[in-house]
Amino acid sequence: MKAVDIIIHKRDKETLSKDEIEFFVKGFTSGDIPDYQASSWAMAVLLNGMSDRETTDLTLAMAHSGEILDLSGVVKISLDKHSTGGVGDKTSLIVAPLVAACGLPFGKMSGRGLGFSGGTLDKLESIPGFRVDLSSAEFISQLRDIGIVLSGQSGNLAPADGKFYALRDVTGTVPSIPLIASSIMSKKIASGAQAMVLDVKVGNGAFMQTLEEARKLSRLMVSIANLSGRKAVCLLSDMNQPLGNAVGNALEVIEAIDVLHGGGPNDLVEHCLATTAYLVMLGKKRKNLAEARQLVEDVLRNGKAWEMFRKLVIAQGGDVATIDDPDLLPKANFNVTINSTANGYVKMVHARRIGEASVDLGAGRTQKGDPIDHAVGIVVHQKVGNYVLEGEPLFSIHSNSEARLEDGIKSVNKAFILSKDVCDPLPLFYEIVE
Ligand code: URA
Asked: What pTM was computed for the model?
């Protein structure tokens, strides 16, 4: 078999065999197939697509390109959650302790932010001392001991995806539904997930800009899960405005802490309760969604979820004093609130622009490995559909530089559109694909 023939087959819109896909993934992972052939192949897939069977073969080949975590001795059903990435999405910080507090051990491997979308690991590292680089052995023993782990992907899980993703990022081949589906699902399978909730974001602050694309991606991921003997539920959720109010690492940790204490913005609370209820049902802790939801609300109200979050922070070396008193978390030098200059209905709080403005303040990176400033970011004080009066707050900017503060105010101002006409609030979820 030759790599060039496999590229030609895909270029000519043929369906690749399982053997061809495995040969290509193995060759690329080992370095026998060079980057230029892999990028040409990825472009052929982006342009000509793949069948569900090809995508499942690709997913399994990438999942088996490294170690597969076996959690069967630690948990009855290994649960996972994944978001396709968005602005202000701090749900993992809340959902993980909620699930664990329901009596279902929950260990999750998360990623860093790239571009305008944030990453759980960067948020967690706002907590001084918090370690995200656990080995597989540490991951398993912490899951066994305290029932909760949030860490980075350990060394040798789905290395083919790591290599492909880095290449796709710089060759214009990220937005391909089969490539995204196989990338996400290969990591989930390699990290031992048996049942998962996939939060597929739709809107200007997400990879999937339309509901149709999000549906396609969701159906494909559910089909891959089923074909590989796993269960997945996809929640298609809105990402046209930030989720919750805070965007930026420490600011998002503070908001997550608020939620775990029973406060926080309604959209974020509802999103987390709904996601966790599905996980509780997949984990067979309750028979139906209504009972699962009741349990989740109970562990939020009675403080068990907060206690789980504290255990997590202590176990991973974080300074617990900073979450007990979030005033001790990193804080920016400038915190300026901008008020509305007119009355009107909020028509838009453009998620992508806010995400980009937050990166420009230093909260995210434009290149892998860039340092980030955990203290900076944006807090939006309004949601689409609200009626605002002149003089009421629209947003606050937290910055460590005066120049960036000025630029941030300009950019975020452009993200807000007010209208004289009534505007409907945005839905939180569009639909569920099971
Ligand atoms: N997230 C992933 O893990 N992979 C993709 O290809 C896109 C989003």
From this structure: 0.92
